[in-house]
Design a protein that fits this description.
differentiation; mitogen; 1 helix; two-stranded antiparallel ribbon; globular; 6 strands; mainly beta; about 190 residues
Amino acid sequence: YVDGAPHQTIYSALMIKSEGAGSVIITGVKSGRYLCMDMKGNIFGSHYFSQEDCVFNHRTLENGYDVYQSPKHHFLVSLGRVKQAFSPGMNLPPYSQFLSRRNEIPLFRFNTPEPHRNTRSVDVDPVDPHQILVPQRKTPAFGSPLQQPADFPHMPREPMRINQNDVVNPDDPHAMMEARRYPSPRFYITR
């Protein structure tokens, strides 16, 4: 479930990354989830990236507000109940126009571990949460080649997730201060 907040929180900070000309990927800085849209126009956070559901076309309107539209589903990203496709000159649904704000939350707040919450994972079958009924995956036999992620092109990719080979600076885990990266101009850092 995705909702708005009247004040900035560590969970309301978003990173908007360009995917191509006019296309963006939106992720929660603290949660690491991708903003995605289903076929009914409902937005949700996902741990897994899907090119069809998690990429949005970005437009800046004449009034200076930004709107984001799903190229697959044609709905605008909206925090309200009304879902509508973008058409120039039409009245936009409430809560579908956004203004960029400067980040006012200190970086150390993003690095502080949160207490573990007992929530149900979307990957867990509620009928069989301990996977007792599901056959276990077989591990490859000794000497057999391991399957690489490239062998599974249908599986969603995770372009922004950190793998074990990445070196992480504990003072800047999201590499926002690193000069060779080009972060979105919408994500500002205050000192």
